[in-house]
Design a protein that fits this description.
By secondary structure, the chain is an alpha/beta fold. The protein has a single domain (3-329, 365-379), classed as Peptidase S8/S53 domain (Rossmann fold, 3-Layer(aba) Sandwich), CATH 3.40.50. Helices cover 23% and strands 20% of the residues. The chain has nine helices and 18 strands. Helix 4 packs parallel to helix 7, helix 5 packs parallel to helix 6 and helix 8 packs across helix 9 (325-331). The radius of gyration is 20 Å and the shape is globular. The two termini are 30 Å apart.
Length: 390
Amino acid sequence: MSGLIATTATLGGCVAEVQAAIFSLPIEEAAKATGVDVLRDRYGLDGTGITIGFISDSFATAKTFDTSGNLDTYATNIANGYLPSGVNVLKDFFEPYAIDEGRAIAQLIHAVAPRAKLVFHTGVGGVDVFGQSIQALAAAGADIIVDDVAYDPAIDQEPPNGLINQAIDRVFNQGIAYFTEAGNDFPYPIYGHSNNSNAVSVGAVYYGNAPSYSSRKDGTVIEQGQLEPFSSEGNPDSLKPDVVAPDGLAISFDLGGGSRSDIDPGFFSFFGTSASAPYTAAVAALLLQADPSATPTEIYNALRDTADSPVSGFDSRLGFGLIRGDKAIAALGVPKPIPEPATTLAMLCVGVIVAGLSLKRTQRKSQTIAKPSERLTLVHSSFTRLPPNT
């Protein structure tokens, strides 16, 4: 079950309640690495009042199975607490090769932001369908939109003024934050709408529940916290990807080549920037819940400016670094409502302890093109290619 567990601290006659997060999927390593545990434990954030639109292949049309070989469906996901009821499916995809990657994305979003409302639209069918899906999600009330759909770089059909980029620009100017995958195509560079300056492009760093995993392709061992070798590189003189975020995250069913059951017993591990992008979008939902007046530009810059990186300056593989929700919320100026564990117990009796934030949504500020912080120097990296079939 997702949600919060309350524990108490007592001093004299005072009792203060502190919340401890429970995630619907085992994502604790990723949550700790990105400060999501702090957002849930200390701020009481769970996505309440935020609607997240997501775009992928299909949501509930594929025949999928769990690690025990049992049929895994949207209904079983609800029963097991992996998904909420009432996901708004505007348009699904029904071809035989659908794999319900949209449902896998939804599970990750729900694990991070369990109270957020979810709206889905397929992005398969051409650039016109993709563009329409973005606009449809905006019309359905999405505050944040994320996709994991990309064309083959050899036949990229999305120029800067293409239908997808036009739709992203339009929703951005309406005050809707947009997140997309950087791609799993290294050494090929990021292409298509993932280069849009009004969207956040997300690369992948391994943060599964095992200390490391071995690539099935060539036996390369990827350690916890290591950049995925397949995560795409930005183009020369660009500031893409914007950030990196966890992949190798647990989901309940088999995505075929995009997941593995031998890393996290009882779950499949979801690899690639298709996992890291929705994870980041869900973190953004928590930030927006905390500061409903924050514009997409402010959220983008909070994530970029507070990201952790092992290199000095901007890196063409790591972007500005690994997202840190606990630092990003401070950059937005949101005060911490619950004392840190090291704070003296006397402070637990001072003021009002807030277990959750319920803030009235205010009108979003007008938007301009997002400009990443210029305090970092552009650095291009060189890594050995590892195909995404891990």
